Amino acid sequence: xxxxxxxxxxxxxxxxxxxxxxxxxxxxxxxxxxxxxxxxxxxxxxxxxxxxxxxxxxxxxxxxxxxxxxxxxxxxxxxxxxxxxxxxxxxxxxxxxxxxxxxxxxxxxxxxxxxxxxxxxxxxxxxxxxxxxxxxxxxxxxxxxxxxxxxxxxxxxxxxxxxxxxxxxxxxxxxxxxxxxxxxxxxxxxxxxxxxxxxxxxxxxxxxxxxxxxxxxxxxxxxxxxxxxxxxxxxxxxxxxxxxxxxxxxxxxxxxxxxxxxxxxxxxxxxxxxxxxxxxxxxxxxxxxxxxxxxxxxxxxxxxxxxxxxxxxxxxxxxxxxxxxxxxxxxxxxxxxxxxxxxxxxxxxxxxxxxxxxxxxxxxxxxxxxxxxxxxxxxxxxxxxxxxxxxxxxxxxxxxxxxxxxxxxxxxxxxxxxxxxxxxxxxxxxxxxxxxxxxxxxxxxxxxxxxxxxxxxx
Length: 458
Hints:
By secondary structure, the protein is an alpha+beta fold. It folds into 3 domains: about 50-140 and about 150-180, Roll (FAS1 domain); about 190-320, FAS1 domain; about 325-450, FAS1 domain (Roll). The protein has helices at about 1-35, 50-55, 60-70, 90-100, 110-115, 190-195, 200-210, 230-240, 250-255, 325-330, 340-345, 350-355, 365-375, 385-395; strands at about 80-85, 120, 135-140, 145-155, 160, 165-170, 175-180, 220-225, 260, 270-280, 285-290, 295, 300-310, 315-320, 360-365, 395-400, 410-415, 420-425, 430, 435-445, 445-450. The strands form 3 sheets. It has a 7-stranded mixed β-sheet with strand order 2-1-7-6-5-4-3.
């Protein structure tokens, strides 16, 4: 029995040794296989936006267009992410027919570049991230740093009211592709208004006023504060009228009062008075912009959307139609004239100065009135009677719409028969030797206002 145990023990030891050697041998062979250069895992193949487009025959014209202007390398870069709304071959075919050209070679490179970049947005935006609204493309607008905008209507899955989004979320290593069935084209201010259903009332007004062509002029640059449909509905309800009740001439004046002859993005909007394209007395009307607590025009119309960049300007949406103010309204809408307004009310001159006019008002600031109170040793308007105030106020008003450029050296009569103003324009505009015009030509619908730094005392 002992001998059997000894033999079994020796054999068991031998078997374990052989198994151990076999295990080591297999492990070494596996290690040799793992270290073989031929069997190393290959890196995954890069699939950029350009790669995906090049691999799909339905994007062959898009790829050819990108290559023609040298944008194919840009969209193959993995250092940035892009969202591309990619037109199909059929979409490009429709564009060539629309333009009346035979092929891409007939389109200048700068034009083609602008169109192609108009389909590209910075960043990767999957379909679930896209909401109805405006998006800034990589196509250059009228001012550096402001890309041309396009409008996406996700209820209809359309862009600019022109192209249908037919497929979404084709993922690339450097972004995402959404497929569209039309090539979208950069739009003018008029085109943008037409493309957004929220501006249909504005479009109807522009059409009736025969301003569509003017606001599509790409040789000019505009800033348009565009009232929404709700703003026009409120305007018509308050006035008890409809669009049909307004003449083309009246509509033109109203609409152009919302437009300025320059490109003013939101970042450049500052508090103050701005001349508009609407004219009265052959001069541009003024609109007051207040930037405290939001941006408001003439005190009560708020800017609700900004920087819709068109090829010929920029649109900011507003929630109320603005109307040109009277000279009284100009004072009421500016907190720096609150003492002047108090005086006009106490002197019962509001109705008179709200009439047809025209009037030229030299308007003293609050600081000017406070200096007068100190000189008179009184606390304020409450210490002055109507009879005290009336001749003072009328000495600040001249009959007619007299802009600063119309002034010349000499005496100018006022509505106070006992007081004329001694005007001097040799070094700015001064009155009676010591009173300075510190801001000029605030144009209203019944006259013009110039701001002065002292009260005129008859």
